[in-house]
Specification:
Helix content is about 25%, strand content about 30%. By secondary structure, it is an alpha/beta fold. The strands form 2 sheets. It has an 8-stranded mixed β-sheet. It has a two-stranded antiparallel ribbon with strand order 2-8. Bound molecules: NADP nicotinamide-adenine-dinucleotide phosphate (NAP). NADP nicotinamide-adenine-dinucleotide phosphate binds near residues 17, 23, 64, 100 and 124.
Length: about 190
């Protein structure tokens, strides 16, 4: 049965990006090179991604990834939905479908595409809340990075009206900690 997961890295004080959308606090966590998600999480990211069958993101995240990856799409072959009211480019080899408006009908298509695998809500926070508001979010996977920004784009820009049950924690060698929560049905 497919599970819908909001999987993000966030600062200790609950932000997924700087106020201007930057991710230097995460990508340059070791102070020098761009970190590798697999290495930074002792392989946990790879194990998570192996179970993903479809993903969704907002247009700001999409444009950030395109700029950061120099147009090389990191999710080749993965059915990917980008929410936007605008026309945006699609890089070579990307299976990108554009969506706008209500998330529920899109979620149906995503679940069908994912089959037995999971649906990954990449972010940002408001898009994740759109799925949560429709009771379509099953799990939160938060990789907490020991950085305090003091301001930024919040992981949760508004209240989540559901109880959360701790499903697991995992510390990584670099000081990051993964927190997993199930969203308890009403
Ligand atoms: N730390 C992490 O793990 C992590 C994860 C994800 C993202 N991020 C970062 O967070 C930043 C972006 O987050 P964000 O919250 O600003 O933006 P976002 O969710 O990526 O994009 C927001 C935009 O998506 C479009 N959109 C959202 N919902 C829509 C809907 N239902 N219908 C049509 N369009 C819709 C709208 O833009 P238009 O209609 O104008 O296109 C909206 O302004 C980026 O810097 C990204 O890299 C970090």
């Amino acid at each position: 049965m497919s599970t819908t997961q909001y999987y993000v890295a966030q600062t200790l004080d609950g932000y997924i990006a700087d106020s201007d959308g930057g991710l230097d606090w995460l990508l340059r966590f070791d102070g020098e090179s761009t970190i590798d998600a697999s290495e930074a999480t002792d392989g946990a990211y790879d194990r998570f991604f192996a179970e993903v069958g479809a993903l969704a993101m907002g247009s700001a995240t999409y444009e950030f990834i395109l700029a950061e990856a120099h147009e090389r799409w990191p999710y080749e072959g993965m059915p990917s939905w980008v929410f936007s009211s605008r026309e945006l480019p699609v890089p070579e080899g990307a299976d990108v479908r554009f969506a706008r408006g209500a998330v529920r009908p899109v979620h149906e298509h995503m679940s069908t595409a994912a089959g037995e695998r999971n649906v990954w809500i990449v972010g940002g926070g408001d898009l994740a809340m759109q799925f949560a508001d429709e009771d379509l979010l099953d799990e939160l996977h938060l990789t907490v990075v020991p950085v305090v920004l003091g301001a930024g784009l919040p992981t949760f820009p508004r209240r989540l009206r559901r109880r959360l049950r701790l499903a697991g924690t995992r510390p990584f060698r670099n000081g990051m900690v993964e927190l997993r929560y199930e969203v308890v049905a009403a």
